[in-house]
TrEMBL record:
Residue ranges of the TM segments: 20-38
Keyword Transmembrane helix among UniProt keywords: yes
Keywords recorded for this protein, A-Z: Membrane, Transmembrane, Transmembrane helix
Record's protein name: Transmembrane protein, putative
Amino acid sequence: MHDEFDSVSEIVANKIEKDQLFPLSLVSCIAGTINLNLMMNMQKYRFLLSCINE
């Protein structure tokens, strides 16, 4: 079972290397964009809350 998992992770690692990390960079780019959007929304909400509190 453990050996199977190791071979699968090796296959995945090899595939990522062959694809020159493009999918990985794409995923991290999308994740970064989502994080940025969340941060922007949080700032908007904080701004609205500060306006309401005043």
